[in-house]
Write a structure and sequence with these properties.
By secondary structure, the chain is mainly alpha-helical. The longest helix has about 35 residues. The protein starts with 5 loop residues before the first helix and ends in a 7-residue tail after the last helix.
Length: about 180
């Protein structure tokens, strides 16, 4: 099938033809990753492109036949990369502000409270389910990326994200009495 016949490609995708989707995926994956890597790291670019391709497959029935698939893919990848940059920037700012506030408040904490908080933290860490504990320690103490953790444990990045999220939720619940209001 010719990728230049945009109408036919969209029509065939909409009907759920996996062979055409595989052709589109194979044809656009590398160029999209290369384009996206001009905004973010190659590793993140690959993830963005894979997510976009999954989105295209899941939403294939809503594709418009007059749509330029190539333009749509490249525009979507650019927007997703920019969103990722924005999210990272905001997360970094919030984290830095939080750290700054924590450092300002630490001298005000008496040593008894600090020891109690540390003990509660360690208890909570050891009370985590083993999978969550392992992922949390690799992320927070060994400072591995989610991709590195996923590769080490032979699980998906989404699994790593889920386990870290669950661990953080567990910490929030167990350490809520120590939160400054």
């Amino acid at each position: 099938m010719n990728l230049n016949d945009n109408r036919l490609i969209i029509k065939t995708l909409r009907s759920g033809d996996q062979k055409v989707f595989s052709l589109v995926y194979a044809s656009y994956y590398k160029p999209l990753c290369l384009f996206c890597s001009s905004y973010v790291s190659l590793e993140e670019a690959e993830e963005i492109v894979q997510d976009l391709m999954m989105y295209v497959w899941e939403k294939r029935e809503s594709l418009v036949e007059d749509l330029s698939l190539k333009s749509f893919l490249f525009t979507s990848v650019r927007n997703r990369a920019l969103n990722s940059i924005t999210r990272s920037h905001i997360t970094r700012q919030v984290y830095e502000e939080y750290q700054s506030q924590q450092l300002k408040s630490l001298p005000a904490l008496d040593s008894c409270y600090s020891t109690e908080l540390f003990n509660a933290y360690m208890e909570t860490l050891h009370a985590l389910p083993k999978e969550q504990q392992k992922v949390y320690v690799m992320s927070r103490y060994k400072q591995l990326t989610h991709k590195e953790i996923a590769d080490t444990l032979e699980v998906s990045v989404q699994t790593v994200n889920y386990r870290i999220g669950k661990a953080l939720q567990f910490f929030r619940i167990r350490l809520k009495d120590f939160c400054l209001k």
